[in-house]
Amino acid sequence: MNRIPNRRRSFASAALLVGLSCAAYLVATPDVGAATPTFPNVVVPAPVSETADGTTFTLSSGAAIATDVADVGTYLAGILRTSTGFALPVSQGGTATITLSLSGAPASVGAQGYQLVTSSSSVVVRANQPAGLFAGVQTLLQLLPPAVMGSAVSSGPWTAPGGTIVDYPRFTYRGAMLDVARHFFTVAQVERYIDEIALYKINYLHLHLSDDQGWRITINSWPNLAVYGGSTEVGGGAGGYYTQSDYSAIVAYAASRYMTVVPEIDMPGHTNAALASYAQLNCNGVAPNLYTGTKVGFSSLCVPLALTYTFIDQVIGELAALTPGPYIHIGGDEASSTTAADYANFINQAQQIVAAHGKTVLGWHDIAKATLLPSTTAQFWDTTTTNPPLAAAAANGTKVVMSPANHAYLDMKYTRKTKLGQTWAGLIDVDTAYGWNPGAYLSGVGESSVLGVEAPLWTETIVTSANIEYMAFPRLPAIAELGWSPWSTHDQTAFHARLGAQGPRWKDMGLGYFQSTQITWPAGS
Ligand code: TNX
Protein backbone atom coordinates (compact mmCIF):
# COMPACT_ATOMS: atom_id res chain seq x y z
CA MET A 1 0.00 0.00 0.00
CA ASN A 2 1.31 3.37 -1.04
CA ARG A 3 0.63 5.57 1.99
CA ILE A 4 1.00 9.33 1.93
CA PRO A 5 1.97 11.04 5.18
CA ASN A 6 -0.80 12.83 7.10
CA ARG A 7 0.63 16.26 6.38
CA ARG A 8 0.40 15.74 2.64
CA ARG A 9 -2.99 14.13 2.96
CA SER A 10 -4.48 17.18 4.72
CA PHE A 11 -2.94 19.43 2.07
CA ALA A 12 -4.58 17.23 -0.58
CA SER A 13 -7.98 17.49 1.12
CA ALA A 14 -7.69 21.28 1.42
CA ALA A 15 -6.98 21.45 -2.30
CA LEU A 16 -9.93 19.17 -2.90
CA LEU A 17 -12.24 21.46 -0.90
CA VAL A 18 -11.23 24.44 -3.01
CA GLY A 19 -11.85 22.38 -6.14
CA LEU A 20 -15.26 21.30 -4.90
CA SER A 21 -16.40 24.80 -4.06
CA CYS A 22 -15.39 25.96 -7.56
CA ALA A 23 -17.36 23.10 -9.03
CA ALA A 24 -20.36 24.02 -6.87
CA TYR A 25 -20.15 27.58 -8.12
CA LEU A 26 -20.07 26.44 -11.73
CA VAL A 27 -23.05 24.15 -11.28
CA ALA A 28 -24.99 26.89 -9.50
CA THR A 29 -24.66 29.20 -12.51
CA PRO A 30 -27.75 28.55 -14.65
CA ASP A 31 -27.05 28.05 -18.34
CA VAL A 32 -30.32 29.36 -19.72
CA GLY A 33 -31.50 27.51 -22.79
CA ALA A 34 -29.07 24.58 -22.48
CA ALA A 35 -30.52 21.10 -22.99
CA THR A 36 -30.78 18.97 -19.84
CA PRO A 37 -27.49 17.10 -19.65
CA THR A 38 -27.69 13.31 -19.88
CA PHE A 39 -25.24 10.54 -19.21
CA PRO A 40 -24.01 8.72 -22.30
CA ASN A 41 -25.72 5.32 -22.66
CA VAL A 42 -22.54 3.27 -22.28
CA VAL A 43 -22.73 1.42 -18.96
CA VAL A 44 -23.57 -2.31 -18.84
CA PRO A 45 -25.43 -3.34 -16.69
CA ALA A 46 -27.62 -0.23 -16.94
CA PRO A 47 -27.49 1.67 -13.63
CA VAL A 48 -30.58 2.22 -11.50
CA SER A 49 -30.42 6.03 -11.74
CA GLU A 50 -28.17 8.54 -13.46
CA THR A 51 -28.30 12.33 -13.14
CA ALA A 52 -25.85 14.20 -15.34
CA ASP A 53 -24.78 17.73 -14.39
CA GLY A 54 -23.12 18.73 -17.65
CA THR A 55 -19.61 18.92 -16.17
CA THR A 56 -16.68 16.80 -17.29
CA PHE A 57 -14.07 15.12 -15.14
CA THR A 58 -10.61 14.77 -16.62
CA LEU A 59 -8.07 12.40 -15.07
CA SER A 60 -4.66 14.03 -15.27
CA SER A 61 -1.12 12.99 -14.49
CA GLY A 62 -1.14 14.39 -10.94
CA ALA A 63 -4.23 12.45 -9.89
CA ALA A 64 -4.25 10.25 -6.80
CA ILE A 65 -6.57 7.62 -5.35
CA ALA A 66 -7.71 7.53 -1.70
CA THR A 67 -9.49 4.38 -0.64
CA ASP A 68 -11.03 2.84 2.45
CA VAL A 69 -10.48 -0.62 0.92
CA ALA A 70 -6.90 -1.18 -0.18
CA ASP A 71 -7.47 -3.89 -2.79
CA VAL A 72 -10.17 -1.93 -4.64
CA GLY A 73 -7.86 1.07 -4.86
CA THR A 74 -4.92 -0.97 -6.12
CA TYR A 75 -7.18 -2.76 -8.63
CA LEU A 76 -8.34 0.55 -10.09
CA ALA A 77 -4.84 2.03 -10.02
CA GLY A 78 -3.47 -1.08 -11.77
CA ILE A 79 -5.83 -0.68 -14.72
CA LEU A 80 -5.44 3.11 -14.96
CA ARG A 81 -1.64 3.13 -14.60
CA THR A 82 -1.27 0.63 -17.44
CA SER A 83 -3.30 2.67 -19.92
CA THR A 84 -2.64 6.27 -18.79
CA GLY A 85 0.97 5.95 -17.70
CA PHE A 86 0.14 8.15 -14.67
CA ALA A 87 1.67 7.41 -11.26
CA LEU A 88 -1.72 7.37 -9.47
CA PRO A 89 -0.51 6.91 -5.91
CA VAL A 90 -3.00 5.05 -3.70
CA SER A 91 -3.50 6.08 -0.09
CA GLN A 92 -5.57 4.53 2.67
CA GLY A 93 -8.59 6.60 3.74
CA GLY A 94 -9.07 10.34 3.31
CA THR A 95 -9.85 12.02 0.01
CA ALA A 96 -8.03 12.48 -3.29
CA THR A 97 -8.84 13.00 -6.95
CA ILE A 98 -10.60 9.65 -6.85
CA THR A 99 -12.03 8.73 -3.46
CA LEU A 100 -13.41 5.29 -2.64
CA SER A 101 -15.25 5.63 0.65
CA LEU A 102 -17.15 3.30 2.93
CA SER A 103 -19.05 6.18 4.49
CA GLY A 104 -21.91 8.34 3.35
CA ALA A 105 -23.50 5.98 0.83
CA PRO A 106 -27.30 6.07 0.66
CA ALA A 107 -28.80 3.15 2.60
CA SER A 108 -30.76 2.26 -0.55
CA VAL A 109 -27.65 0.91 -2.29
CA GLY A 110 -27.47 -1.99 0.18
CA ALA A 111 -24.49 -4.33 0.43
CA GLN A 112 -23.59 -4.53 -3.26
CA GLY A 113 -24.51 -1.09 -4.62
CA TYR A 114 -22.77 2.28 -4.67
CA GLN A 115 -23.14 5.96 -5.33
CA LEU A 116 -20.77 7.52 -7.87
CA VAL A 117 -20.40 11.30 -8.03
CA THR A 118 -18.20 12.72 -10.77
CA SER A 119 -17.50 16.43 -11.00
CA SER A 120 -15.02 18.58 -12.90
CA SER A 121 -12.40 18.03 -10.22
CA SER A 122 -13.06 14.72 -8.53
CA VAL A 123 -14.66 11.31 -8.48
CA VAL A 124 -16.21 9.95 -5.28
CA VAL A 125 -17.52 6.40 -4.98
CA ARG A 126 -19.40 5.63 -1.78
CA ALA A 127 -20.63 2.22 -0.72
CA ASN A 128 -21.69 0.39 2.43
CA GLN A 129 -19.47 -2.61 1.71
CA PRO A 130 -16.23 -3.21 -0.24
CA ALA A 131 -18.18 -5.10 -2.95
CA GLY A 132 -20.13 -1.92 -3.66
CA LEU A 133 -16.93 0.08 -4.12
CA PHE A 134 -15.71 -2.56 -6.57
CA ALA A 135 -18.99 -2.32 -8.50
CA GLY A 136 -18.72 1.47 -8.56
CA VAL A 137 -15.19 1.22 -9.91
CA GLN A 138 -16.51 -0.89 -12.81
CA THR A 139 -19.01 1.85 -13.67
CA LEU A 140 -16.30 4.51 -13.47
CA LEU A 141 -14.07 2.51 -15.85
CA GLN A 142 -16.95 2.26 -18.34
CA LEU A 143 -17.49 6.04 -18.18
CA LEU A 144 -13.83 6.65 -19.04
CA PRO A 145 -12.72 6.19 -22.69
CA PRO A 146 -12.34 2.59 -23.97
CA ALA A 147 -8.56 2.93 -24.10
CA VAL A 148 -8.45 2.77 -20.26
CA MET A 149 -8.79 -0.99 -20.74
CA GLY A 150 -5.75 -1.12 -23.05
CA SER A 151 -2.54 -2.91 -22.20
CA ALA A 152 -0.34 -0.10 -23.50
CA VAL A 153 -0.10 3.58 -22.57
CA SER A 154 -2.22 5.88 -24.73
CA SER A 155 -2.71 9.62 -24.64
CA GLY A 156 -6.29 10.24 -23.48
CA PRO A 157 -7.81 12.71 -22.75
CA TRP A 158 -9.21 10.68 -19.87
CA THR A 159 -12.61 12.26 -19.46
CA ALA A 160 -15.79 11.07 -17.77
CA PRO A 161 -19.20 12.76 -17.69
CA GLY A 162 -20.08 14.61 -14.48
CA GLY A 163 -23.10 13.81 -12.34
CA THR A 164 -24.45 11.26 -9.90
CA ILE A 165 -25.20 7.56 -10.30
CA VAL A 166 -27.02 5.62 -7.59
CA ASP A 167 -26.93 1.94 -8.38
CA TYR A 168 -27.62 -1.47 -6.83
CA PRO A 169 -28.56 -4.93 -8.10
CA ARG A 170 -32.00 -6.38 -8.74
CA PHE A 171 -30.76 -9.86 -7.73
CA THR A 172 -28.04 -10.77 -5.24
CA TYR A 173 -26.71 -13.72 -7.32
CA ARG A 174 -25.25 -12.99 -10.75
CA GLY A 175 -23.23 -15.95 -11.86
CA ALA A 176 -21.15 -17.39 -14.65
CA MET A 177 -20.36 -21.10 -14.88
CA LEU A 178 -17.27 -22.52 -16.51
CA ASP A 179 -17.18 -26.24 -17.29
CA VAL A 180 -13.57 -27.19 -16.62
CA ALA A 181 -14.45 -30.91 -16.85
CA ARG A 182 -15.23 -31.38 -20.55
CA HIS A 183 -12.08 -29.42 -21.33
CA PHE A 184 -9.60 -28.42 -18.66
CA PHE A 185 -8.62 -24.79 -18.28
CA THR A 186 -5.54 -23.67 -16.35
CA VAL A 187 -5.57 -21.39 -13.30
CA ALA A 188 -4.37 -18.53 -15.51
CA GLN A 189 -7.19 -19.14 -17.99
CA VAL A 190 -9.79 -19.14 -15.22
CA GLU A 191 -8.31 -15.95 -13.77
CA ARG A 192 -8.49 -14.31 -17.18
CA TYR A 193 -12.19 -15.16 -17.38
CA ILE A 194 -12.73 -13.87 -13.83
CA ASP A 195 -11.22 -10.52 -14.84
CA GLU A 196 -13.43 -10.31 -17.92
CA ILE A 197 -16.72 -11.13 -16.22
CA ALA A 198 -15.99 -8.95 -13.18
CA LEU A 199 -16.32 -5.96 -15.53
CA TYR A 200 -20.06 -6.71 -15.73
CA LYS A 201 -20.64 -7.08 -11.97
CA ILE A 202 -20.79 -10.88 -12.00
CA ASN A 203 -20.33 -11.94 -8.37
CA TYR A 204 -20.42 -15.78 -8.46
CA LEU A 205 -18.12 -18.09 -10.41
CA HIS A 206 -19.55 -21.60 -10.62
CA LEU A 207 -16.87 -24.15 -11.51
CA HIS A 208 -18.17 -27.45 -12.93
CA LEU A 209 -15.31 -29.52 -11.48
CA SER A 210 -16.33 -33.05 -12.40
CA ASP A 211 -18.15 -34.86 -15.17
CA ASP A 212 -17.97 -38.05 -17.19
CA GLN A 213 -14.91 -36.81 -19.05
CA GLY A 214 -12.80 -35.55 -16.18
CA TRP A 215 -12.31 -34.97 -12.45
CA ARG A 216 -10.51 -31.68 -11.97
CA ILE A 217 -9.56 -31.24 -8.30
CA THR A 218 -7.27 -33.17 -6.00
CA ILE A 219 -9.13 -34.98 -3.22
CA ASN A 220 -6.47 -36.21 -0.80
CA SER A 221 -8.57 -39.11 0.50
CA TRP A 222 -9.29 -40.32 -3.06
CA PRO A 223 -6.14 -39.42 -5.03
CA ASN A 224 -6.97 -41.37 -8.20
CA LEU A 225 -9.88 -39.04 -8.91
CA ALA A 226 -7.57 -36.29 -10.12
CA VAL A 227 -4.53 -38.32 -11.14
CA TYR A 228 -6.44 -40.87 -13.22
CA GLY A 229 -9.94 -39.37 -13.56
CA GLY A 230 -8.42 -36.03 -14.56
CA SER A 231 -6.05 -37.49 -17.14
CA THR A 232 -8.17 -36.86 -20.21
CA GLU A 233 -10.99 -34.71 -21.60
CA VAL A 234 -13.42 -34.52 -24.52
CA GLY A 235 -11.57 -35.49 -27.68
CA GLY A 236 -8.89 -37.43 -25.78
CA GLY A 237 -6.54 -34.59 -24.84
CA ALA A 238 -4.40 -34.69 -21.71
CA GLY A 239 -6.95 -33.01 -19.43
CA GLY A 240 -5.54 -31.85 -16.10
CA TYR A 241 -6.61 -30.96 -12.61
CA TYR A 242 -6.24 -28.32 -9.93
CA THR A 243 -4.19 -29.14 -6.88
CA GLN A 244 -5.87 -27.93 -3.72
CA SER A 245 -3.52 -24.95 -3.68
CA ASP A 246 -4.41 -24.19 -7.33
CA TYR A 247 -8.06 -24.21 -6.36
CA SER A 248 -7.37 -21.95 -3.38
CA ALA A 249 -5.51 -19.58 -5.71
CA ILE A 250 -8.60 -19.37 -7.94
CA VAL A 251 -10.82 -18.77 -4.90
CA ALA A 252 -8.50 -16.00 -3.69
CA TYR A 253 -8.26 -14.40 -7.13
CA ALA A 254 -12.04 -14.46 -7.46
CA ALA A 255 -12.34 -12.89 -4.00
CA SER A 256 -10.04 -10.07 -5.11
CA ARG A 257 -12.69 -9.36 -7.79
CA TYR A 258 -15.49 -9.66 -5.20
CA MET A 259 -16.58 -12.95 -6.70
CA THR A 260 -17.50 -16.08 -4.75
CA VAL A 261 -16.57 -19.50 -6.12
CA VAL A 262 -19.32 -22.15 -6.23
CA PRO A 263 -17.65 -25.55 -6.74
CA GLU A 264 -19.74 -28.28 -8.37
CA ILE A 265 -19.27 -32.00 -8.02
CA ASP A 266 -21.95 -33.38 -10.33
CA MET A 267 -23.75 -36.47 -8.98
CA PRO A 268 -25.18 -39.11 -9.07
CA GLY A 269 -24.97 -38.90 -12.89
CA HIS A 270 -22.09 -37.35 -14.85
CA THR A 271 -19.70 -39.45 -12.75
CA ASN A 272 -17.87 -41.70 -15.21
CA ALA A 273 -14.48 -40.16 -14.37
CA ALA A 274 -14.95 -41.03 -10.67
CA LEU A 275 -16.31 -44.49 -11.44
CA ALA A 276 -13.33 -45.14 -13.75
CA SER A 277 -10.93 -44.09 -10.99
CA TYR A 278 -12.27 -46.46 -8.29
CA ALA A 279 -13.73 -49.86 -9.19
CA GLN A 280 -15.23 -50.19 -5.70
CA LEU A 281 -17.59 -47.25 -6.34
CA ASN A 282 -19.37 -49.28 -9.05
CA CYS A 283 -22.38 -51.48 -8.25
CA ASN A 284 -20.71 -54.33 -10.18
CA GLY A 285 -17.24 -53.63 -8.79
CA VAL A 286 -15.83 -53.06 -12.28
CA ALA A 287 -14.33 -49.72 -13.29
CA PRO A 288 -15.50 -48.43 -16.68
CA ASN A 289 -13.02 -46.97 -19.14
CA LEU A 290 -12.27 -43.26 -19.16
CA TYR A 291 -14.68 -41.45 -21.49
CA THR A 292 -13.81 -38.75 -24.00
CA GLY A 293 -17.07 -38.46 -25.97
CA THR A 294 -19.95 -36.01 -25.45
CA LYS A 295 -22.96 -38.18 -24.56
CA VAL A 296 -24.76 -37.46 -21.29
CA GLY A 297 -26.90 -39.48 -18.89
CA PHE A 298 -25.14 -42.86 -18.98
CA SER A 299 -23.27 -42.97 -15.66
CA SER A 300 -24.43 -43.13 -12.04
CA LEU A 301 -22.89 -43.50 -8.62
CA CYS A 302 -24.14 -46.69 -6.94
CA VAL A 303 -27.04 -45.42 -4.82
CA PRO A 304 -27.50 -48.59 -2.63
CA LEU A 305 -23.80 -48.82 -1.77
CA ALA A 306 -22.74 -47.52 1.66
CA LEU A 307 -19.27 -46.59 0.33
CA THR A 308 -20.92 -44.07 -2.02
CA TYR A 309 -21.84 -41.88 0.99
CA THR A 310 -18.41 -42.22 2.61
CA PHE A 311 -17.02 -41.09 -0.74
CA ILE A 312 -19.32 -38.07 -1.01
CA ASP A 313 -18.73 -37.12 2.61
CA GLN A 314 -14.97 -37.10 2.13
CA VAL A 315 -15.08 -35.30 -1.21
CA ILE A 316 -17.53 -32.64 0.04
CA GLY A 317 -15.61 -32.36 3.31
CA GLU A 318 -12.34 -31.51 1.56
CA LEU A 319 -14.05 -29.17 -0.89
CA ALA A 320 -16.04 -27.38 1.83
CA ALA A 321 -12.84 -26.81 3.82
CA LEU A 322 -11.26 -25.12 0.78
CA THR A 323 -14.33 -23.05 -0.09
CA PRO A 324 -15.13 -19.88 1.89
CA GLY A 325 -18.38 -19.25 -0.02
CA PRO A 326 -21.71 -20.60 1.23
CA TYR A 327 -22.58 -22.94 -1.64
CA ILE A 328 -21.59 -26.42 -2.75
CA HIS A 329 -23.23 -27.39 -6.06
CA ILE A 330 -24.14 -31.07 -6.21
CA GLY A 331 -25.23 -31.17 -9.86
CA GLY A 332 -28.05 -33.66 -9.96
CA ASP A 333 -28.86 -33.14 -13.65
CA GLU A 334 -29.64 -35.74 -16.29
CA ALA A 335 -29.38 -38.74 -13.97
CA SER A 336 -31.21 -40.83 -16.52
CA SER A 337 -29.61 -44.11 -15.54
CA THR A 338 -30.77 -43.75 -11.91
CA THR A 339 -34.33 -44.76 -10.98
CA ALA A 340 -36.66 -42.04 -9.65
CA ALA A 341 -36.70 -43.59 -6.15
CA ASP A 342 -32.92 -43.99 -6.05
CA TYR A 343 -32.49 -40.44 -7.31
CA ALA A 344 -34.68 -38.91 -4.58
CA ASN A 345 -33.00 -41.03 -1.94
CA PHE A 346 -29.55 -40.03 -3.18
CA ILE A 347 -30.30 -36.28 -3.32
CA ASN A 348 -31.78 -36.40 0.17
CA GLN A 349 -28.59 -37.97 1.54
CA ALA A 350 -26.30 -35.66 -0.44
CA GLN A 351 -28.10 -32.62 0.99
CA GLN A 352 -27.54 -33.89 4.54
CA ILE A 353 -23.84 -34.40 3.84
CA VAL A 354 -23.41 -30.87 2.45
CA ALA A 355 -25.30 -29.44 5.43
CA ALA A 356 -23.11 -31.43 7.84
CA HIS A 357 -20.11 -29.64 6.34
CA GLY A 358 -21.74 -26.27 6.98
CA LYS A 359 -22.62 -25.45 3.40
CA THR A 360 -25.77 -24.68 1.43
CA VAL A 361 -26.77 -26.92 -1.47
CA LEU A 362 -27.11 -25.64 -5.00
CA GLY A 363 -28.28 -28.18 -7.55
CA TRP A 364 -29.69 -28.28 -11.07
CA HIS A 365 -33.49 -28.04 -10.95
CA ASP A 366 -33.88 -31.82 -11.34
CA ILE A 367 -33.29 -31.96 -7.56
CA ALA A 368 -36.78 -30.51 -7.03
CA LYS A 369 -37.98 -34.09 -7.51
CA ALA A 370 -36.42 -34.90 -4.12
CA THR A 371 -37.40 -33.39 -0.75
CA LEU A 372 -35.43 -30.18 -0.50
CA LEU A 373 -33.94 -28.73 2.66
CA PRO A 374 -35.25 -25.20 3.32
CA SER A 375 -31.88 -23.71 2.35
CA THR A 376 -31.35 -25.77 -0.82
CA THR A 377 -31.31 -23.61 -3.96
CA ALA A 378 -32.23 -24.92 -7.41
CA GLN A 379 -30.74 -23.84 -10.73
CA PHE A 380 -33.22 -23.94 -13.61
CA TRP A 381 -31.64 -25.01 -16.90
CA ASP A 382 -34.46 -26.28 -19.15
CA THR A 383 -36.01 -24.69 -22.25
CA THR A 384 -39.59 -24.76 -20.95
CA THR A 385 -41.49 -22.01 -19.12
CA THR A 386 -43.24 -24.45 -16.80
CA ASN A 387 -41.70 -26.93 -14.41
CA PRO A 388 -44.24 -28.25 -11.90
CA PRO A 389 -41.81 -29.80 -9.37
CA LEU A 390 -39.75 -26.60 -9.32
CA ALA A 391 -42.88 -24.42 -9.02
CA ALA A 392 -44.00 -26.59 -6.10
CA ALA A 393 -40.59 -26.23 -4.44
CA ALA A 394 -40.70 -22.44 -5.00
CA ALA A 395 -44.14 -22.31 -3.40
CA ASN A 396 -42.50 -24.05 -0.46
CA GLY A 397 -39.75 -21.43 -0.22
CA THR A 398 -37.00 -22.80 -2.49
CA LYS A 399 -34.98 -20.05 -4.15
CA VAL A 400 -34.07 -20.42 -7.82
CA VAL A 401 -31.11 -19.37 -9.97
CA MET A 402 -32.33 -18.85 -13.53
CA SER A 403 -30.29 -20.28 -16.42
CA PRO A 404 -32.86 -21.15 -19.10
CA ALA A 405 -30.77 -22.98 -21.70
CA ASN A 406 -32.49 -21.32 -24.66
CA HIS A 407 -31.50 -17.85 -23.39
CA ALA A 408 -28.60 -18.14 -20.94
CA TYR A 409 -26.45 -21.01 -22.27
CA LEU A 410 -23.23 -19.57 -23.62
CA ASP A 411 -22.37 -22.83 -25.40
CA MET A 412 -25.29 -22.52 -27.83
CA LYS A 413 -24.35 -21.28 -31.30
CA TYR A 414 -25.21 -17.66 -32.08
CA THR A 415 -26.31 -18.47 -35.63
CA ARG A 416 -26.26 -21.54 -37.86
CA LYS A 417 -22.83 -20.42 -39.06
CA THR A 418 -21.16 -20.34 -35.62
CA LYS A 419 -18.37 -22.93 -35.70
CA LEU A 420 -18.21 -23.56 -31.94
CA GLY A 421 -21.03 -24.71 -29.72
CA GLN A 422 -24.19 -26.78 -29.78
CA THR A 423 -27.79 -26.26 -30.90
CA TRP A 424 -29.97 -28.48 -28.69
CA ALA A 425 -31.45 -25.49 -26.85
CA GLY A 426 -31.63 -23.32 -29.99
CA LEU A 427 -29.60 -20.53 -31.53
CA ILE A 428 -28.89 -17.66 -29.13
CA ASP A 429 -27.92 -14.29 -30.58
CA VAL A 430 -27.86 -11.12 -28.45
CA ASP A 431 -31.60 -10.41 -28.62
CA THR A 432 -32.45 -13.93 -27.45
CA ALA A 433 -29.90 -13.76 -24.63
CA TYR A 434 -31.35 -10.39 -23.50
CA GLY A 435 -35.02 -11.02 -24.29
CA TRP A 436 -36.47 -12.61 -21.17
CA ASN A 437 -37.39 -11.54 -17.67
CA PRO A 438 -35.83 -13.70 -14.93
CA GLY A 439 -38.47 -12.69 -12.40
CA ALA A 440 -41.44 -13.52 -14.63
CA TYR A 441 -40.23 -16.34 -16.85
CA LEU A 442 -41.13 -19.61 -15.20
CA SER A 443 -44.68 -20.09 -14.08
CA GLY A 444 -44.90 -20.30 -10.30
CA VAL A 445 -41.34 -18.93 -9.90
CA GLY A 446 -41.85 -15.18 -9.44
CA GLU A 447 -39.46 -12.36 -8.63
CA SER A 448 -39.34 -13.13 -4.90
CA SER A 449 -38.37 -16.78 -5.57
CA VAL A 450 -35.52 -15.81 -7.87
CA LEU A 451 -32.10 -15.53 -6.23
CA GLY A 452 -30.54 -14.47 -9.50
CA VAL A 453 -29.25 -15.52 -12.90
CA GLU A 454 -26.34 -17.51 -14.22
CA ALA A 455 -24.76 -17.89 -17.66
CA PRO A 456 -23.28 -21.41 -17.96
CA LEU A 457 -20.51 -22.17 -20.45
CA TRP A 458 -20.31 -25.89 -21.16
CA THR A 459 -17.11 -26.78 -22.94
CA GLU A 460 -17.62 -29.86 -25.09
CA THR A 461 -16.56 -27.70 -28.08
CA ILE A 462 -14.62 -25.02 -26.20
CA VAL A 463 -10.85 -25.52 -25.96
CA THR A 464 -9.03 -22.19 -25.64
CA SER A 465 -9.43 -18.84 -23.89
CA ALA A 466 -10.20 -17.35 -27.30
CA ASN A 467 -13.08 -19.86 -27.61
CA ILE A 468 -14.36 -18.87 -24.13
CA GLU A 469 -14.30 -15.19 -25.01
CA TYR A 470 -15.98 -15.69 -28.37
CA MET A 471 -18.91 -17.55 -26.80
CA ALA A 472 -19.24 -15.39 -23.66
CA PHE A 473 -19.02 -11.99 -25.31
CA PRO A 474 -21.33 -10.28 -26.04
CA ARG A 475 -23.92 -12.59 -24.45
CA LEU A 476 -22.58 -12.73 -20.91
CA PRO A 477 -23.08 -8.95 -20.46
CA ALA A 478 -26.72 -9.45 -21.54
CA ILE A 479 -27.29 -12.00 -18.78
CA ALA A 480 -25.33 -9.82 -16.33
CA GLU A 481 -27.64 -6.89 -17.10
CA LEU A 482 -30.75 -9.05 -16.55
CA GLY A 483 -29.34 -9.92 -13.14
CA TRP A 484 -28.35 -6.41 -12.08
CA SER A 485 -30.54 -3.77 -13.73
CA PRO A 486 -34.12 -2.99 -12.74
CA TRP A 487 -36.65 -4.35 -15.24
CA SER A 488 -37.75 -0.74 -15.86
CA THR A 489 -34.45 -0.17 -17.73
CA HIS A 490 -35.06 -3.15 -20.03
CA ASP A 491 -35.06 -1.84 -23.60
CA GLN A 492 -33.62 -3.74 -26.55
CA THR A 493 -32.65 -0.67 -28.60
CA ALA A 494 -30.97 1.08 -25.68
CA PHE A 495 -29.22 -2.15 -24.74
CA HIS A 496 -27.86 -2.51 -28.28
CA ALA A 497 -26.25 0.92 -27.99
CA ARG A 498 -24.62 0.35 -24.60
CA LEU A 499 -23.50 -3.14 -25.57
CA GLY A 500 -21.98 -1.70 -28.75
CA ALA A 501 -20.01 0.70 -26.58
CA GLN A 502 -18.21 -2.31 -25.09
CA GLY A 503 -16.78 -3.29 -28.51
CA PRO A 504 -13.87 -0.83 -28.53
CA ARG A 505 -13.05 -1.85 -24.95
CA TRP A 506 -12.87 -5.52 -25.88
CA LYS A 507 -10.72 -4.60 -28.86
CA ASP A 508 -8.33 -2.68 -26.59
CA MET A 509 -8.27 -5.60 -24.14
CA GLY A 510 -7.45 -8.09 -26.89
CA LEU A 511 -10.71 -9.92 -26.13
CA GLY A 512 -11.99 -11.62 -29.29
CA TYR A 513 -15.78 -11.39 -29.20
CA PHE A 514 -18.53 -12.36 -31.66
CA GLN A 515 -19.49 -9.31 -33.74
CA SER A 516 -23.22 -9.97 -33.71
CA THR A 517 -24.98 -8.34 -36.67
CA GLN A 518 -27.75 -7.30 -34.26
CA ILE A 519 -25.40 -4.66 -32.86
CA THR A 520 -23.97 -1.61 -34.65
CA TRP A 521 -20.41 -1.81 -33.42
CA PRO A 522 -18.78 1.63 -33.25
CA ALA A 523 -15.66 2.46 -35.22
CA GLY A 524 -12.64 0.99 -33.47
CA SER A 525 -14.51 -2.10 -32.24
C1 TNX B 1 -26.76 -30.22 -20.67
S1 TNX B 1 -28.05 -28.58 -18.76
C2 TNX B 1 -26.00 -30.43 -19.54
C3 TNX B 1 -24.54 -30.55 -19.69
C4 TNX B 1 -24.10 -30.38 -21.10
C5 TNX B 1 -24.90 -29.30 -21.75
C6 TNX B 1 -24.46 -28.97 -23.14
C7 TNX B 1 -27.26 -29.48 -17.78
C8 TNX B 1 -27.48 -29.22 -16.37
N1 TNX B 1 -26.46 -30.45 -18.27
O1 TNX B 1 -24.10 -31.77 -19.16
O2 TNX B 1 -22.75 -30.06 -21.11
O3 TNX B 1 -26.25 -29.70 -21.79
O4 TNX B 1 -25.13 -27.86 -23.64
Describe this structure in words.
The strands form 3 sheets. This protein has an 8-stranded parallel beta sheet with strand order 12-9-8-17-16-15-14-13. The protein is globular. By secondary structure, it is of the alpha/beta class. Mean pLDDT is 94; it is low at 1-30. The two termini are 35 Å apart. It has helices at residues 6-28, 70-84, 130-143, 187-198, 224-227, 244-256, 272-277, 306-322, 340-356, 388-395, 405-408, 430-434, 465-472, 475-484, 492-500, 503-509; strands at 49-59, 65-67, 90-92, 98-101, 114-118, 123-126, 158-167, 173-179, 204-208, 210-211, 214-215, 260-264, 327-329, 360-364, 377-380, 399-402, 450-457. It has 16 helices and 17 strands.
Keywords:
525 residues, alpha/beta, eight-stranded parallel sheet, seven-stranded mixed sheet, 17 strands, globular, binds ligand TNX
Helix share of residues? 25-40%
Give the averaged pLDDT, no decimals.
Answer: 94
List segments where confidence is low: pLDDT < 50 over at least 5 consecutive residues.
1-30
The major beta sheet can be summarized as: 8 strands, parallel
The strand order across the widest sheet is 12-9-8-17-16-15-14-13
Can you tell me the overall shape?
A: globular
**SSE class:** alpha/beta
Secondary structure: number of strands:
17
Strand content: 15-25%
Distance between the termini: 35 Å
Give the number of helices.
Answer: 16
Q: List the ions, cofactors and other small molecules found in this model.
A: ligand TNX
Q: Nearest-angstrom radius of gyration?
A: 24 Å
